[in-house]
């Protein structure tokens, strides 16, 4: 069976130039004509200009979900998550969910979420304290 090496999400955006700036300057992605990738495609997007702003449709919240997510990315530890939060907020990221801790049978999960110029929500989480 063939092995998939990575994947990207395709995003219809209302203003390609504005989105490319956000993904590069705020999210820290390497950006070219339509690609925005970070950390060797650990986080990857293909940004496409929408025909109309009404074609841009971020996800709605799921049942029992307060913050809707369009992307969910993982980091290794809570410490790295805190560093990422500081990095993104220092670059002007709009936070839609402050870092929050959740306890489960297996341990403590921590996550936060930001949004891009088209209201796509990108969440980041970690399940390790150290």
Task: Describe, in plain words, how this protein is organized in 3D.
This is Glyoxalase/bleomycin resistance protein/dioxygenase. Keywords: Dioxygenase, Oxidoreductase. Pfam families: Glyoxalase. β7 and β8 form a beta hairpin. With 130 residues, the protein is of the alpha/beta class. 18% of the residues lie in helices and 37% in strands. The strands form two sheets. It has a four-stranded mixed beta sheet with strand order 1-4-3-2, with helices on one face. The chain contains two helices and eight strands. It has one domain: 2,3-Dihydroxybiphenyl 1,2-Dioxygenase, domain 1 (Roll). The protein is globular and about 45 Å long. The longest helix has 13 residues, at 78-90. The N and C termini lie far apart (36 Å).
Note the topology.
Layout: E1 9-13, H1 16-26, E2 30-31, E3 35-38, E4 43-49, E5 71-74, H2 78-90, E6 94-104, E7 107-115, E8 121-126
Parallel strand pairs: 1-4, 5-8
Antiparallel strand pairs: 2-3, 3-4, 6-7, 7-8
């Amino acid at each position: 069976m063939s092995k998939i090496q990575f994947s990207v999400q395709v995003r219809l955006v209302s203003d390609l130039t504005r989105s490319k700036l956000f993904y590069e300057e705020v999210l820290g992605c390497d950006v070219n004509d339509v690609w925005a990738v970070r950390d060797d495609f650990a986080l990857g997007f293909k940004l496409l200009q929408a025909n109309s702003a009404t074609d841009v449709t971020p996800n709605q919240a799921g049942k029992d979900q307060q913050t809707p997510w369009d992307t969910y990315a993982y980091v290794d530890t809570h410490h790295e998550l805190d560093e990422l939060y500081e990095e993104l907020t220092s670059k002007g990221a709009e936070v839609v969910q402050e870092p929050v801790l959740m306890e489960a049978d297996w341990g403590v999960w921590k996550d936060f979420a930001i949004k891009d110029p088209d209201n796509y929500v990108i969440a980041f989480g970690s399940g390790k304290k150290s």
